[in-house]
Amino acid sequence: MGIADWPLLERPRERLLAQGAGSLSDAELVAVCLRTGVRGKSAVDLARELIAEFGGIGGLLTADLASLRRVRGLGTAKAAQLAAALELARRSLQEELKAGVSLTSPGAVRDYLRLALGSRPYEVFMCIYMDAQHRVTAAGELFRGTLTQTSVYPREVVKAALAANAAAVIFAHNHPSGVAQPSQADELLTRQLKEALALVEVKVLDHFIIAGNQALSFAERGLL
Q: Fewer CB atoms inside 10 Å of the end CB: C or N, the chain?
């Protein structure tokens, strides 16, 4: 039975308008973005399948357009609608970070980094710059590599931190392989960057490895 045949106050869009977005389940929110279902499936049914396919809302938020288009029954138009909604979520989180949010724990940046890096098909090294109160002042990509590696130059990282007038930084890079574990090279690079930045009195607060919906914190692992 299609959503149009449901009682009026059980339809996701009507409930959202009457009771607010917070009253809807994850699947119902995704269904509102999809607008309609496909033959034999309501929008809510399709939304539930999408959430299961990507391992939850977090995984769906990191999905790229190509991944969405490969889902059977989604189609180009629905994939585009959903990709646009997901990109708005990513940009919203980025705006919040750049609005002077104070970061008091590694968990405060996980969602942003998952959205920013989780679906990249190539390695990216990025930096979040902060003032002395650990409020975000800027964030951006510094280096881009291939499927398996990227070259990071400490000298350029120091220059970027000084140009941003940063007192502290958080590094992040992704593993397109899907394995969120640090290599020996990752650990060595982090030590080199920490030592180089200490010379100009910039503190390294953390280094995250992002793999899909996973996020590993060097600080939490005791690797800093």
A: N
Residue 195, Cα to own-chain centre: how many angstroms? 28
Cα–Cα separations (whole angstroms), residue 56 to 13, 40, 47, 67: 21, 23, 11, 15
Residue-wise pLDDT for 13-35, tens only, equals 788 788 887 888 888 888 888 88
E-state strands within 27-118: none
DSSP class of residue 217 equals E
Determine the distance from the C-alpha atom of residue 55 to the mean position of all C-alpha atoms in its chain, rounded to a whole number.
14
Are 43 and 51 in contact by the 8 Å Cβ rule? The answer is: no
- For residue 4, the model assigns a pLDDT of 57
In three-state secondary structure terms, 224 is: coil
Contact 189, 127 (CB under 8 A): no
157 neighbors 209 (Cβ within 8 angstroms): no
Beta carbons of 106 and 206 less than 8 angstroms apart: yes
Please name the residue ranges forming H helices in the chain. Answer: 12-19, 26-34, 43-53, 57-61, 65-69, 75-98, 110-117, 154-163, 184-198, 218-221
The residue among 60, 89, 169 whose CA lies nearest residue 125 is 169
Kindly state the tokens that stand for 126: 């990025």
